[in-house]
Amino acid sequence: MKTSSFSRELIKDSLLFGGMLAILLVLWHFVGVPGASAALIDASDNPENISAATGGEGSFRTLARVIINFFLYFLGFIATAMIIYGGVLYVTSGGQDEQTGKAKKILIYAIVGIVIILLSFAIVNTVILGAGTGDEAVT
What we know:
Blueprint: H1 2-31, H2 47-53, H3 60-91, H4 97-130
Helix pairs in contact: 3-4
């Protein structure tokens, strides 16, 4: 029994470490090393280049909305995949109470996640779009 739980913990810790390392590498790639010459915006950039790089979005508000919506779509995709995984686990449980309980938990958590994602999508788009475009002049 101890060997089995030890190997599960080792696998869990390895996956956690690998995920954190992957996130660090992605951040390093996009943000860069502090003090290095590679920057997100150069002195040679002009508004047309920045607008082209951001998909034609000129204001910070609409750019923030596009980025947040991208992450919400991604989280929705993951929650949908978890529903499929939970359904497959439930169908293949063969009546084992432990597997059935695990599948039900996955399904419940995934559905709650989708509800939260939908609510946050509605709130973000209402707050950002309802407050104006962000291009107004400050007086």
